[in-house]
Design goal:
The chain is an alpha/beta fold. The chain has 3 domains: 270 residues, Alpha-Beta Barrel (TIM Barrel); 92 residues, no CATH class; 142 residues. It is 29% helix and 21% strand. The chain has 21 helices and 30 strands. The strands form 5 sheets. An 8-stranded parallel barrel has the order 1-2-3-4-5-6-7-10, surrounded by 7 helices. An 8-stranded parallel beta barrel has the order 18-19-20-21-22-23-24-30. A 5-stranded antiparallel sheet has the order 8-26-27-28-25. Helix 2 links the parallel strand 2 and strand 3. Helix 4 packs across helix 19 and helix 9 runs antiparallel to helix 10. The protein is elongated. It starts with a strand and ends in an 18-residue tail after the last helix.
Length: 681
């Protein structure tokens, strides 16, 4: 079993340096403007090349993140960013968007491809699908338990990577739209405003009273002590979150990971003092998802950080010796030479200073002098001493100069970037006119479906658990929806339900997670908005995977949607309380327990707006207080299918809204146009 990789964040050159000098095996950094932490200043051009050279000289791998959703006009810039990264020598590319995956494979097939945690892969079938698509590694969702990680890793033919330290999003990885819909800053595009860190209160507050507590704010995770168990489970890499943190934070986390991996002690107090939100949580990994997972950053936390920074700086004041070298010292009456090799490269240094006869054997003293590699990333593995006609004596300064010169030459040699095969790609613009529309509706349950409207709808979408309730005459127009997340044994249960319903006359199956491609293989497949499709290449990729229809991400503007024409129907949500967040941790546990919970709740924010919360299938979904409505703007919509997305509505309300959409009438009540006109960052 190979050694567990310690993967550290590098939001800038200072953090990258701290990571390498404190002993990280690899770093990940943002590439250009296509990374999920845009405010961390992505690496460009020569700065990227310099970063790669610095890391490679020290035996540190570089993973470049291009893990945002991408809009059609950005595709040429994305292709150039991938090309630049490959030319700079980046070892791996981390992607969320299937457009980035396709371009990476076309442009730089020799560079490893890693599936970002924002792909929300949290099941075996999701991991296997990435393997089928040529990925080399999958970065698993942070919400998994150790048993779930083990089960996926043991059965997955590609590497797995897991987060072990750093901030936790409240939302399941890659499924959050709260920042975009509340402030126009998309987390899927690297500009999350941290909306969940603002006051949200789960108590039943009176109308108009704003929240004052933080029931969506999770503590940072810390499961570094579990590194031996993760290695035993077969995990390839453990990841530290924190590209927006400091060099001191990175160094403390890397040192802790090294200690836990290597069975050595580490400074736990320093790790917490450098940054925490009232401590840490290991809730997800341990399967203990309760109110103890929640916390906020306090003034006391900040004071401890200020005090801890000088101690943390000591962790990267000197180079961590990560690269083993062999030395061969030769001396005769004419002078001395030193050969240094890292197993691949070999350098030579010479001194023509005449040695003097030695009274005693100088071999051990020479070895001690040559082994003094401190201040460099090297340590000596083997040292050979050969003296012809000797023994000979050389001044210590001469020996030291030979060592310094050789190690400097080797460091420069290791910086050289290997040549890679890089291909050019041709990109084509697509544009579509406003098509004729068909009306579909998604419902939470069969009881919510208006009977008369059901007859008139082109398509009905219902959760697969509702299948048996659908009358036979309506099954040919009914698509069964898979759960958006499939933790625990839910994926297996869903596979069984698919098998039980595949011959019952339904129109097909809709899913919002890439695991659905394998679960529904050979059956009519429809893509939900959770696939985050935002450009024509990604749309084409899903078409090639067998999908018969896709729903475009509601973060797109109408103008951006018009650039997507994959040759299969596209759908758009024209009504619905947008599911802003889906979470495995429960905010309601801050005020009650599962036994006494109605599975329906409300979160109130700092502006006194009330967000419906619904619990089911092991997760909680948080909805926007007001619905999207575009029923009176149909003539502007460049999608084939208009979908009314019903969640918290009654049957009567659903019937009235469908009538309004069918008639193209304005909405009667509070509503939003969502992001269809204003877009995101």
């Amino acid at each position: 079993m190979s050694q567990l990789e310690i993967l550290a964040p590098a939001g800038n050159m200072e953090m990258l340096t701290a990571a390498a000098r404190s002993g990280a095996d690899a770093v990940y950094l943002g590439l250009g403007n296509f990374n999920a932490r845009r405010t961390a200043n992505g690496f460009f051009g020569e700065q990227l090349a310099e970063a790669v050279r610095f890391c490679h000289a020290r035996g540190v791998r570089v993973h470049g993140a291009v893990n945002t959703t991408v809009y059609a006009p950005e595709l040429p810039a994305l292709a150039q960013t991938i090309t630049d990264a490959a030319q700079a020598g980046v070892d791996a590319l981390i992607v969320q968007d299937l457009a980035a995956a396709r371009l990476a494979q076309q442009i730089a097939p020799e560079v490893e491809l890693h599936g970002s945690t924002q792909m929300s892969v949290h099941t075996l079938q999701g991991a296997l699908q990435l393997a089928d698509m040529g990925f080399d590694r999958v970065i698993l969702s942070r919400e998994l338990s150790l048993d779930e990680i083990r089960a996926i890793t043991e059965a997955c033919p590609i590497e797995t990577e897991v987060f072990v330290h750093g901030a936790l999003c409240m939302c399941v990885s890659g499924q959050c739209y709260m920042s975009a819909f509340l402030g126009g800053r998309s987390g899927n595009r690297g500009s999350c405003a941290g909306t969940c860190r603002l006051p949200f209160q789960a108590d039943a507050l009176p109308a108009g009273k704003p929240a004052q507590t933080y029931h969506l704010s999770l503590k940072d995770m810390d499961v570094i002590d579990a590194l031996p168990a993760l290695q035993k489970a077969g995990v390839a890499s453990v990841k530290i979150e924190g590209r927006l943190r400091t060099p001191e934070y990175v160094a403390a986390a890397v040192a802790a990971c090294r200690g836990a991996r290597d069975g050595a002690a580490y400074d736990r107090a320093l790790l917490q003092d450098v940054f925490s939100r009232s401590g840490f949580t290991a809730g997800y990994l341990q399967g203990k998802r309760d109110g103890s997972m929640f916390g906020v950053r306090t003034g006391e936390d900040a004071a401890k950080t200020r005090e801890a920074l000088p101690r943390a700086r000591e962790l990267f004041r000197r180079e961590f010796p990560a690269v083993a070298v062999d030395m061969s010292f030769y001396c005769d009456e004419e002078g001395a030479s030193l050969t240094v090799s890292d197993g691949v490269r070999r350098v030579y240094s010479f001194s023509d200073e005449k040695p003097q006869p030695a009274r005693t054997d100088p071999a051990e003293a020479l070895r001690r002098s040559l082994a003094k590699t401190g201040g460099t990333p090297f340590y000596t593995h083997d040292i050979e001493i050969e003296m012809e006609g000797g023994p000979w004596f050389l001044p210590g300064s001469t020996v030291n100069e030979l060592r310094r010169d050789s190690l400097e030459k080797l460091l420069l040699l290791r910086e050289k970037t290997p040549q890679r095969m890089i291909h050019s790609v041709q990109l084509h613009d697509t544009r579509r006119t406003v098509p004729s529309h068909k009306l579909a509706a998604r419902f939470e349950s069969w009881e919510q479906v208006p009977r008369q409207a059901a007859e008139q709808l082109w398509r009905i979408v219902l959760p697969i658990a509702e299948a048996e309730k659908v009358p036979q005459p309506l099954r040919e127009k009914t698509v069964l929806e898979l759960p958006r997340v499939l933790f625990g044994n839910l994926e297996q249960q869903t596979a069984q339900r698919i098998q039980a319903t595949r011959s019952l006359g339904f129109a097909g199956y809709e899913f919002s997670n890439i695991a659905g491609v394998r679960l529904c293989a050979g059956l009519p497949m429809f893509g939900g908005f959770g696939l985050n499709i935002t450009n024509p290449i990604a749309a084409e990729e899903y078409k090639q995977l067998g999908l018969a229809q896709i729903t475009l991400l509601p973060e797109l503007t109408l103008e951006q949607m018009a650039a997507i024409d994959p040759g299969i129907p596209t759908a758009m949500i024209v009504y619905g309380h947008m599911p802003l967040m889906i979470t495995r941790a429960c905010p309601m546990q801050n005020v009650t327990d599962c036994k006494h919970c109605s599975k329906k709740g409300v979160l109130t924010d700092r502006k006194a707006a009330k967000f419906p919360v619904r619990c089911g299938l092991g997760v909680r979904t948080i909805y926007n207080p007001v619905p999207i409505y575009m029923g009176d703007k149909q003539e502007q919509i460049p999608a084939d299918v208009l979908t009314a997305y019903f969640t918290v509505e009654t049957r009567e309300q659903a019937a009235a809204i469908l009538a309004q959409i069918s008639a193209g009438k304005p909405f009667d009540g509070d509503f939003t146009r969502g992001l269809y006109y204003k877009g995101t960052n």
